[in-house]
């Protein structure tokens, strides 16, 4: 059971919930990071007394350094500060709850420092899965998933020791706020509309990804690298109730599923305590109330981002990094009301089509592709 944790992105939804889980586990905190929310980060730092805190936004870091003067807590800044927090020597495990491709370099730093990873930053494996998994194997570092879907698969696979025992993985999707709507019905949706997720309380970027179903596409690619499963054995099912978090079908025909209320604290706790399970007071399923579980095929016409993710993963090389970066840029533009909802997949597809594929990526190549993908979207918006 992890005794001392570093949390990258501690002021976001996953980060805040991780600190609550740490309280339940009696774990201590080695490092905390945030982008710019120094009011909350200061509160967290004073409560948990980490060795180091880091702030991506440099003016905010300067202000926090003044506030924490005399506390004994080191305040670092920028991406190098986040990397320092990821590699801090006193941590047993690093929770990467950053959002977007910015999470890649801190993950690499943590692995190189020999830290196990509890991963909520799916973009790390989407963009750099080949390089990251290779490095983790070399350094004998475990990567444990925090995403509810990947945690579900991870739990279902306990006791099954070979990938060839798996016939298929079913990733479940809520369908987001626009489930059942046609492409035509999505022409005039606003960021406010897209941020109304029916089941989960998440950050803005992930919520928009859920609305476009890109979130599920990213999870398909992440599952490929986490579990060593071919893409043609990974399927997506829309499951509006969000009770079954994912399923694994084995070669003998048995299917195992992990069920639970939509509560991210459960997979966070399991990632931090694996192979043990901590006692919690988190909500339990009432099967007499949750007595209807339904499934649908995803609509790839209305939600083409899922198709684009499969295409990027099949092409391989640096194309998933380009796709991921293009998506981040397009989602940002949509949230700023600069493009329409339906333009998100169009910009991603355009960037993917314009990219000259590069094989066998290392981290430097991935980061270069990430930058190219963003710039291509801004150029074409």
Give a written overview of the molecule.
This protein is of the alpha/beta class. It folds into three domains: 4-146, NAD(P)-binding Rossmann-like Domain (Rossmann fold, 3-Layer(aba) Sandwich), CATH 3.40.50; 151-315, no CATH class; 316-376, RNA polymerase sigma factor, region 2, helix turn helix motif (Rna Polymerase Sigma Factor, Chain: A), CATH 1.10.1740. 45% of the residues lie in helices and 15% in strands. It is built from 15 helices and eleven strands. The protein has helices at residues 13-25, 38-48, 58-67, 78-86, 104-112, 123-139, 148-156, 191-194, 204-212, 214-227, 265-273, 305-315, 319-335, 343-354, 363-380; strands spanning 4-8, 28-34, 52-55, 74-77, 93-96, 116-119, 143-145, 166-173, 234-238, 244-250, 255-259. The strands form two sheets. It has a seven-stranded parallel β-sheet with strand order 4-3-2-1-5-6-7, with helices on both faces. Strands 9-8-10-11 form a four-stranded mixed β-sheet, with helices on one face. Helix 4 (78-86) runs parallel beside helix 5, helix 13 (319-335) runs antiparallel to helix 14 and helix 14 crosses helix 15 (363-380).
